[in-house]
Write a structure and sequence with these properties.
The chain is α/β, with parallel strands linked by helices. The protein has 8 helices and 27 strands.
């Protein structure tokens, strides 16, 4: 069995950033395992711009952003295997994988960074009535068909769900000559970034129907139309509000799910809200030496945050294999009050916070004119006004080591949303 100090599962933006950070922290024996035919992950099909403003201080397309990190990996001569599927990871960090050249093989890792990303929720999870006709795609599948394969899914389009991929595909399909009749969203607010609502829908006069959903799909061989109805406060369709929209294509942008089958199988404790691993201040899971970052941990809104988080996970993995591993002990749970649905990390051990610690979270509904506050016991150490917060945009506070140093007997860490 091959021995490798750090194995990174996934060669997307998170995996590449983690590899570079681990290498720069002193660990040279790194292996990236990627199941696709190329590095870069989902960014290869995201040909729109808007990436890299924080990481590189310039606006890049998805492939350009991924290529920057590919170059960084190649400059460091970090090895990677493509077309390689990881089949299993044990709790003692034995990775079983396979590819055409090597067959089934195993690697004993000193530390593992999980960066498998996320997948789209499918129509099967929605229980929408109707047959299974051609023309029913997830938004990400349609994005790959149009941007990488050169195929148009259809000409008359309805989009269900206002996640960022759905919004971006509304614009992309329009630019390719399709007619996007509407974007229907079951919630009373959009699940995407405000800038995408403006640039992808409003700039192209595409209607956004909030509190609406698809209640029927017409067509047996090919989609011929959908029925959209308004929903009530319990997200149930309101009888009598149904409207038929003729179309030949339905794109689904109804949420992303962290890709954690491997994590669950190896016994990692999962966070119920995010669907990703529960991690401590080092982005370390419940299994010592196994770290997680990026969309496998929780779904991000900006890839720049993915890279920042993964870089931190890579540095922590390097410290672990370089002898910085310490016995895990229960940290202080991060308490949430006034609106946050979850936080990453879930627990914090103040004695192990050596660098600025970013606590990321999302709110459960649209909130206006509120303050984001961080409390250490009874002292409020951060108090920042936020004019608008929405579930589609991630929020964060930065906990500094010097803040913790002033509270040697710390018992509680709380992230609160407070009235202005």
């Amino acid at each position: 069995m091959k021995q490798t100090e750090i194995v990174i599962v996934g060669g997307g933006p998170a995996g590449l950033a983690a590899a570079c950070a681990a290498y720069d922290a002193g660990v040279k024996d790194i292996l990236i395992l990627e199941r696709d035919r190329e590095l870069g992950g989902i960014l290869n099909q995201c040909i729109h711009n808007g990436f890299g403003l924080q990481t590189f201080q310039e606006e890049l397309t998805g492939p350009e952003y991924a290529h920057r990190f590919m170059e960084m990996v190649q400059q460091r001569e970090i090895p990677y295997l493509l077309n390689t599927m990881v089949l299993d990871i044990t709790s003692d960090k034995v990775v079983t994988a396979m590819n055409r050249e090597d067959g089934v093989f195993q690697v004993q890792a000193g530390a593992i960074v999980l960066t498998m990303g996320c997948r789209e929720r499918s129509r099967g999870a929605l229980n929408t009535p109707g047959y299974r006709p051609a023309g029913d795609y997830s938004a990400g599948t349609a994005q790959r068909l149009v941007n990488m394969e050169g195929w148009m899914p259809g000409k008359e389009v309805v989009i269900l769900g206002s996640g960022d991929i759905g919004l971006i595909m509304a614009r992309r399909m329009t630019l390719e000559g399709a007619k996007v009749r509407c974007v229907a969203e079951i919630m009373p607010y959009s699940g995407g970034l405000k800038r995408n609502i403006v640039q992808c829908l409003e700039d192209f006069d595409i209607p956004l129907l909030l509190s609406h959903t698809v209640v029927d799909i017409h067509g047996k061989e090919r989609v011929t139309g959908v029925t959209i109805a308004q929903v009530d406060g319990n997200l149930k369709p309101i009888p009598g509000t149904e409207v038929d929209y003729p179309c030949d294509t339905l794109l689904l942008s109804v949420g992303l799910l962290p890709e954690n089958e491997l994590s669950r199988a190896m016994g990692v404790e999962m966070a119920p809200v995010t669907g990703g691993p529960a991690v401590n201040e080092r982005l370390e899971t419940s299994i010592p030496g196994v770290f997680a970052a990026g969309n496998v941990l929780h779904v991000h809104d900006l890839v720049d945050y993915v890279s920042q988080e993964a870089s931190e996970a890579g540095r922590n993995a390097a410290e672990f294999v370089n002898g910085g591993a310490q016995a895990q002990k229960p940290g202080i749970p991060v308490t949430l009050q006034g609106g946050p649905r979850y936080s990453v990390p879930c627990t914090i051990d103040p004695g192990k916070v050596q660098r600025d610690l970013v606590i990321r979270f999302r709110v459960g509904s649209v909130m206006k004119n509120r303050f984001v506050s961080l409390y250490l016991d009874e002292e409020r150490v951060i108090h920042r006004k936020r004019p608008v917060m929405a579930p589609g945009e991630m929020e964060q506070v930065v906990l500094k080591p010097e803040m913790l140093a002033k509270h040697p007997e710390l018992k509680q860490i709380a992230v609160c949303i407070e009235e202005a």
